[in-house]
## 1
Amino acid sequence: MLRRFNLDPTEVIHIGDSIISDVSGAQNAGIRAIWLNRLNKTKPEGITPDYICKDLFEVRECFEQFITRISKAVFVKIVVFKKIVLKMVK
């Protein structure tokens, strides 16, 4: 998928509710991961998400932090996805 859209793993952030398949899988591919932990599950040993969010409002805050850390060129690539997330939390 990264090659298809000409993206570097550092330009992507994965959001998922499974600490093992979503977070660990993304990180194994060199992609940052947000663990959407809506059920307040206990984090298992050996897996450390880049961000832990309890709801989509916190995901939006993580995106804002993520965007400030990446270059302007990368920002253009994720702006569409950010708009989708913002619509979901409004």
## 2
Amino acid sequence: MAPYLYIPLHMTGHIPCPVLANPPMTSLVWFKDDHPLEISHHRNLRLHRGSTLIIEPVTLRDEGVYSCIPHSVLGEGKKSSGVKVFVRDHPRFLTRPDSIYQRQPTQFVSMPCVASGDPRPSITWKKVSISVALK
């Protein structure tokens, strides 16, 4: 697994367990912060295709280090290396600019645009497909 993974707050997160098993895997145990995860006891957790942990919806409590151990008829496999999961809030508008502004050539124009998110989003303005850098 990658050493870290970013998943979106209030959306769906996917955490894959890298399993190659022969004979096939019969079960899988997920861990969060070195504690077994009882998936059936969490309303927002489920398994997809037997090995990918689905978190829906993602909450801030879902941050942590996740790992997994596969099981087959031959016994228990090796615990995966942990992946640090960071929960981040997707960008969203707090104040949207209007779609049209009409002013006389000498009049001042103010076009407010405010967004939030984690990490904090940058705002880029474009005029007729020309990017305008704001400093």
## 3
Amino acid sequence: MNIFGNEEINKFPIHNIPVQTTESWDDCNSASYDPKGYCERNEVLRKLDVEPASKRKNFYVTERNRIKRFTEENIKGIIENETIDKENEVKKSEEEKVIPKTSVNNTINECTPDSITNLLKQVKLGANKSFNSIQNN
């Protein structure tokens, strides 16, 4: 009964549906997240504020060495990528020497309608003219 003396009727009943779970997140055997370890292994800028000056000085010296190590690794990676890019450019230039380039006239397909073929010829012939004057011809 409610405060008015009437019986309470649940207008929106919630049915209890039993759901079987096969997974329990409490039994997980994975390591937890270690923010300090993550920051030490990755390129993250860190700052120490609340320690005495001597500890801050030592911290900043180790941080400089850590960041220097990352930048040296990045430079090595960039140099390796540049050498690979140069090798690929040499291969491409060698392939270009083997494959002859075709001229514009040879690239016009025989199936191309005459109107497009004529327009392409006009564009090629009227290179120094404006496009409107070519269409009017």
